[in-house]
Amino acid sequence: MAEEKKNWFKELTFKEKLQYIWDYYKIHIIVGLLLIYVLTTFTLSMINRKEYVLNIALIGESVDFDRLSQFSHEVTKELVGNPSDKKEASVDFYKLIRDSQGELILDPASTQKLIARIAAKQIDVIILDKKSFDALAVQGAFLRLDKTEGLDLKDYKVVKTLKDVNGVKKGVYGIYVNSDNRWLKQIGYDYHNKIIAVLSNSEHKDLAIKFVKWLLKG
Which keywords does this chain's UniProt record carry (predicted)? Predict the structure, then answer.
């Protein structure tokens, strides 16, 4: 009798064995599979994780998102090296919309995202309209460019503040984008009358200045 109880599992069909294992061990199986999934996902994310060494924000009415990705690769290749490596430049677009008076403004969700990313030091360079530039400039958002080493401003149309405001010293904080910029034209960005500036809290100021010079040559 004891021997019969001992061998009962061997006498089950393959299907019956699977059903028995599932009925009595399904919690263990599910937990085990979940652990394997979590560990695999975490490992792959660590292996494939990119380090964004330059974060660029474009504010405007239009952009070609397919070409925006290619532009990011071009920037990475020019400033960092091989785009397939882990270090990468990112380019994000924030859309302007018309308010009830017909004025161009950032929609509330984009405004919150932009301000949060600036505060978190996740934007290094920004290209934006004059109205948005003025609003951020008086808050000390931008790096003073006429005091920045390695940037010759004589060939550029610059944006100056003419007096000290809120602790922000008068000086040059932005540069108008060239009237015929091939890089920005290629990505369908409405760059006319836009200003490029470097964020004062950028953690990649050297690369940011290098990008400004490279872009404006276009």
Answer: Membrane, Transmembrane, Transmembrane helix
Could you count the other beta carbons within 10 Å of the beta carbon of residue 139? 14
Q: Which residues contact 201 (CB under 8 A, 6 or more apart)?
A: 118, 121
What is the model's pTM? Answer: 0.74
User: Residue 67, Cβ neighbours under 10 Å: how many?
Assistant: 14
Domains, in order of start, for the chain: 8-47 (no CATH), 51-217 (3.40.190.10)
Q: What is the pLDDT of residues 36-65, one digit of tens each?
A: 777 766 555 555 556 778 999 999 988 998
Structure tokens at 49: 């994780």
Res. 29: pLDDT tops 80: no
Spacing of C-alpha 145 from chain mean position: 23
Alpha carbons 148 and 171: distance in angstroms, whole number: 11
* Residue ranges with strand state E in 15-170: 51-60, 87-98, 104-106, 125-129, 158-161
Distance from C-alpha of 156 to C-alpha of 153, rounded to nearest angstrom: 5
Which residues, 6 or more positions from 45, have their beta carbon under 8 angstroms from its beta carbon?
A: none
User: How many CB atoms lie under 10 A from the CB of residue 79?
Assistant: 18
Q: Is 93 helix (H, G, I), strand (E, B) or coil?
A: strand
Q: Which residues pair with 159 in a beta bridge?
A: 174
